[in-house]
Design a protein that fits this description.
about 170 residues, alpha/beta, Rossmann fold, 6-stranded parallel β-sheet, two-stranded antiparallel sheet
Length: about 170
């Protein structure tokens, strides 16, 4: 897939977003153009009632964009029950990036790094009851013996070294 995608997965409250922030900053510092996609199983809203953008989507606009000199934001309505495949979303909106990091998508077939905090869970998602062959590393706050590399949860440079070696060289 172009660009390559790495999904950061874990149970809620484990530190996925914190690790993603560190990985994005580290990759940006190395000169890569990085995208991020967060999966939300619920119906989120970035619009706020009463704002012009909200009014336009309420009026029936299926795609609504806000542009400024600094950024572009888009609200694109999906048909009921028809969330696009992750690969389709990346192909459509992320072609200009070097890599995309996602948060969530634990059931996808994208390469995964699992975040593990001993206080939050005992069993890993990808090496617990189910074996996910797409797991290629774990970031943990405890020593684990696994069939994939295990990094300290705070070792963003080391994790990025693995990401660069595997997906960006």
């Amino acid at each position: 897939m172009t660009p390559p995608v790495v999904s950061i997965v874990a149970r809620s409250g484990t530190g996925k977003t914190t690790l993603l922030e560190k990985l994005i900053a580290e990759l940006k510092g190395r000169g890569y153009r990085v995208g991020a996609i967060k999966h939300d199983a619920h119906s989120f809203s970035i619009d706020h009632e009463g704002k012009d953008s909200w009014r336009l989507t309420q009026a029936g606009a299926e795609t609504m964009l806000i542009t400024s000199p600094a950024k572009v934001a888009m609200v694109k309505m999906n048909r009921a029950g028809e969330e696009p495949e992750l690969g389709e979303t990346i192909a459509r909106y992320c072609r200009d990036l070097d890599i995309v990091l996602t948060e969530g998508f634990k059931r996808s077939t994208m390469p995964k790094i699992e975040v593990h905090r001993q206080e939050c869970q005992q069993a890993l998602l990808c090496r617990g009851e189910e074996f996910d062959p797409h797991l290629f590393a774990v970031a943990a706050d405890t020593d684990l013996q696994l069939d994939v590399p295990v990094f300290d949860l705070n070792d963003a440079p080391g994790i990025c070294d693995l990401i660069v070696a595997r997906f960006l060289t």
